[in-house]
Every structure is written in C-alpha cells, then in structure tokens.
Specification:
Chain B: It comes from Paracoccus aerius. Chain B: Key component of the proton channel; it plays a direct role in the translocation of protons across the membrane. Chain B: It is found in: Cell membrane; Membrane. The complex is a heterodimer of chains A (about 200) and B (about 250). Chain A is an all-alpha fold and about 200 residues long. Chain A is about 85% helix and about 0% strand. Chain B has one domain. In chain B, helix 2 crosses helix 3 and helix 6 runs antiparallel to helix 7. Classes of the chains: A mainly alpha (about 200), B mainly alpha (about 250). Chains A and B meet through helix 2 of A and helix 2, helix 3, helix 4 and helix 5 of B.
C-alpha cells in the first residue's frame, strides 16, 4: 500500500516538475498541479529543518524561557505570600491598638465620672451649709418680727383700754353718776375680753 | 499556458495550492534535504517569534508584569495548568516539550496567516513528524514507567471478561489511529482554511461579486485566526491526554 502511494506521489511529482519546466520555459510563475503536501521530494528537506527547529526551540524553551518565567511566577507568589503575612501582622497590631485605645477611653471616662461625683459632693456640702445658714437667719428674723408685732399689738390693746375707760367714765359722769374707777375698769376688762385676742 | 488561457476566458485564475509549494530560498535549484527553503525561513521566524514572546517578553522579570510578560505568563500558565490537570503532577516533567510543541504550532499557524506567508503546519510531513514524536515518546514513557502494565491500557479490567478481547482490538486500533488523527487534523485544518481564503480572493477579480468576496475573505480570516489557536490548543491537549494514558494506563 505504501509503495502504491509512493508511486502515485512520484507520478504527481513528475508531472509537477514537468509543469514547472514548461512554465519556466514560458517565463511563468511556478504553479502547483497537485497537492504540494504530497510531493515526497520535499519531505526530507521539511523533516530535516523541522528537527533542527524543534531542537533549537526546545533548547530555548527549556533552558531560557520556562525557568525564567517560572522563577518570576514563584517570586510573585512568594512576594504575595509575604505581603499577605505582613498584612495579617498589621491587622493584628491594629486590633491591639484598637483595644488599647478602647481601654484608655474607658479609663478616662471612669476617671471623669469620679471627678464629677467628687465635685458634686463638695458642691452639695457647700450648698447644705449655705441653706442651713440661711434657714437660721430666716428663723431669727421671723422671731424678731413676731416680737415686734406682739409689742405693737400689746400697746394697741393698752391704748384701746385707756380710751374705753376714759369714754366710760365720761359717759357715767354726763349721766350724773359718780365715777367708781374700779367698777369701770372691771366692766371695760370684761367687755374687752374676747374682742381683742 | 493552458492555465493562462483558461484565466483569460473566464476572468478568473485560481491557484489556491501555490501557497503550499516548497521552494528554495536562493535560486531555482532542486530541493535537497539540506537546501534552505521557505520552510527554513518560516521555521526560523517561529523560533524568532517564540524568542520575542517568551524570552524578550520576560526579560524584565517584573513582579508586576508588562504586557508582553503577561502574555508569556499566560501561555506558560495555560500549558502548565493543562498538563497538571490532565496528566497530573508527574506529567510536569514533560512540560518543556509540551510547551515547545504548543509554541511551535501556535506560531506556525498564526504566522502562516500573514499575507504571502508559508504555513509549515499545512504540510503533512511536518505534522506527521510532530505527531509521531508525540506517540513514540508517549509509548516509550509508558513502557519505561509501567513496564508490561502499560498494556493494561488495552486490556480493560473493569469490563466483563467476554468483551475484553473485542475492546482490546478496538483500543489497539484507536491507539494506532492517534498519530494519524493528530497530524491530519492539524494539516487538514490549515490546508482547507488557507485554500478557501485563496479561492474567495480569486473571486474578487469579478467586479460584481468582489464586495461579497472581500467580506468573505475577512470573515474567513477571522475564523482562521480562531482555528489557528484552537488547533494548537487541541494538539497540545491531546498530547496531554496521551501522556496521561502513558503515566496512568489503568482506566
């Protein structure tokens, strides 16, 4: 089967060279008569250059390109891992700092409330003292006022009695009676009892 | 002369296969095995492109990659992950070769799409050698790593005893079809895509259909860019699958 194929290809190649010859003779550009892929006369050439190319390409890829790209990728992976770890550390530090800040804030707050309470107690004390002082003053003044009111009332009472006695004596005299001073006093006192007070 | 006459008669001249001809770079002589040809030139450009991407791109070794470096890292990561996922960690030993294969095929396909380019992966001789290297390499690895147990790949113990011989025959056939399917899939895709673009481009000579032809060429070209990458990817992923079979032959 292979020999058959080769024969066919050789015939094709012969035709090809013939047409090439004729076209060259006519000054034309070479044209393909069959599939150029089946022209076995060029196989050795293609395979030779392919093997050379693959060897060179393999050397370039295996010895230069892949190690370099691989090292770049692993470097990047390393850098990323390092950065992530550093970030984790910073996060931890930030958390610690936050805790410290919260603690300081709470301390300051309790201190402030302590100071406020102390101040309040002090002020309360002063206030109490002032109120007590004021109360005493007020009581003293009230007592004095009451005393004076009593004096005024007493004097008014005495004056009213005097006037009533005088008026009673004058009335008794004008009716022609004799004035019994003791009787008049008694009558006035009994009348006045209950009027005043 | 015949083609020229034909061309004048219809206003069309199709030479979709001319782009695949292997020509000497210097002069018109015969193509010997050592002759520098367009194959040589384009394979050299593949090596140059790989150097530019993987070596020049990563020369900064930057922690924060440049654009070129991130593409190189993307290619590295893609093939690396492919091997690790499919063939397992012990397959990573063969990472350089799989990477070489991928870079060669992807750049051969993509550079082949440049106007006036020669596509080395459109030649069955090239893809055949690539596929043969994979299959022979994988078979050798399989026998070296597992000894006779490599044949467990064909003798499926999880199946009932009665059907095992039949399955063995099927497995053996499928094993030997692998290099054929690998090489023909790649070359076939490349030949077909490039030939179709050429045919559409030939139609542009007729004024009436020229706009359609131009749009078709643009569409085909975009599709071929996709195919160029996908075929390189498929070749590489199948290599990984075969490598997995060689490293862990039991199903």
């Amino acid at each position: 089967m292979i020999s058959l194929l080769q024969e066919a290809v050789t015939i094709a190649a012969d035709e090809h060279t013939e047409s090439v010859a004729s076209s060259v003779a006519h000054g034309e550009v070479e044209t393909a008569t069959g599939l150029p892929q089946l022209d076995v006369t060029t196989f050795a050439n293609q395979i030779f250059w392919l093997i050379i190319t693959l060897l060179v390409l393999y050397w370039v890829v295996a010895k230069i390109a892949l190690p370099r790209i691989g090292s770049v990728l692993s470097d990047r992976q390393g850098a990323m891992t390092g950065d992530l770890m550093a970030a984790e550390e910073f996060k931890l530090k930030a958390k610690e700092a936050e805790a410290a800040y919260d603690k300081a804030l709470a301390d300051a707050r309790s201190e402030a409330s302590k100071i406020v309470a102390a101040n309040r107690a002090e002020i309360q004390k002063e206030l109490d003292a002032a109120i007590a002082h004021a109360d005493a003053e007020i009581a003293a003044r009230t007592a004095e006022s009451e005393k004076r009111i009593r004096e005024i009332r007493d004097s008014a009472d005495a004056n009213a009695r005097e006037v009533a006695r005088d008026v009673t004596a004058e009335l008794v005299r004008s009716f022609g009676g004799t004035v019994d001073q003791a009787a008049v006093d008694q009558a006035v006192d009994s009348r006045m009892k209950g009027a005043l007070q | 002369m015949a083609t020229e006459a034909h061309g004048e008669a219809t206003g069309l001249s199709f030479h979709p296969m001319d782009q695949f001809i292997v020509r000497p770079l210097f002069g018109d002589g015969e193509v010997h095995w050592y002759t520098p040809t367009n194959v040589t030139l384009w394979m050299f450009l593949i090596v140059a492109a790989t150097l530019a991407l993987l070596v020049m791109g990563s020369r900064g070794r930057a922690i924060v990659p440049t654009r070129g470096q991130s593409v190189a890292e993307l290619a590295y990561g893609m093939v690396h992950k492919m091997i690790a996922d499919i063939a397992g960690k012990d397959g990573l030993k063969y990472f350089p070769y799989v990477m070489t294969l991928f870079m060669f095929i992807v750049f051969a396909n993509l550079l082949g799409l440049l106007p006036l380019a020669f596509t080395v992966t459109s030649h069955i001789a090239v893809t055949g050698v690539l596929a043969a290297a994979v299959i022979i390499g994988v078979t050798v690895i399989g026998f070296v790593k597992n000894g006779v147990h490599f044949l467990d790949l064909f003798w499926i113990r999880s199946a009932p005893l009665a059907v095992r011989p039949i399955l063995a025959v099927i497995e053996v056939i499928s094993y030997f079809v692998r290099p054929l399917s690998l090489s023909i899939r790649l070359a076939g895709n490349m030949i077909a895509g490039h030939a179709v673009i050429k045919v559409f481009a030939g139609f542009a000579a007729i004024a009436a259909v020229a706009p359609v032809a131009v749009v078709a060429v643009v569409g085909m070209y975009a599709f071929e860019v996709l195919v160029a990458f996908v075929q390189a990817y498929v070749f590489t992923i199948l290599t990984c699958v075969y490598l997995k079979d060689a490293l862990h032959p039991s199903h």
